[in-house]
Amino acid sequence: MTLHLVFSAGGLTSCLVRHGASEPVVLLGDGVYSVPQALAAHADLFVMEEDLAARGLTGDGVRCIDYRDLVALSVAHARVVSWND
């Protein structure tokens, strides 16, 4: 199974077209602006809490993670793909 790291709104669009339905998606950096679109399209969604806070956003309704959680997710998946279109 693949872990998808999404860094932008365009990256999310590309990711959602190509990812497997049960594969987790993590929104990082400017990708956190895409939380509403990602929530509507994907059930296994994680969002970097520090990136939300840096942009003045809240994590209402999403599973927020920190860098320790991101490392654990990365280790738990055979492949990690970054999306930043």
Structural commentary:
The protein is 39% helix and 24% strand. The protein has 85 residues and is α/β, with parallel strands linked by helices.
Strand content: 15-25%
Helical percentage: 25-40%
Distance between the termini: 22 Å
Q: Give the overall shape.
A: globular
Given the structure, what is the number of helices? 4
Describe the largest sheet. Answer: 5 strands, parallel
Kindly state the number of beta strands: 5
H/E order of the elements? Answer: EHEHEHEHE
The residue-averaged pLDDT reads: 93
Radius of gyration computed on alpha carbons: 11 Å
How would you summarize the topology of this molecule?
Elements: E1 2-6, H1 9-18, E2 25-27, H2 35-41, E3 45-48, H3 49-54, E4 63-65, H4 67-76, E5 79-83
Characterize this entry briefly:
This protein has four helices and five strands; from the N terminus they run βαβαβαβαβ. The chain has helices spanning 9-18, 35-41, 49-54, 67-76; strands at residues 2-6, 25-27, 45-48, 63-65, 79-83. The longest helix is centred in the N-terminal third of the chain and has 10 residues, at 9-18.
Relevant terms:
85 residues, alpha/beta, five-stranded parallel beta sheet, globular
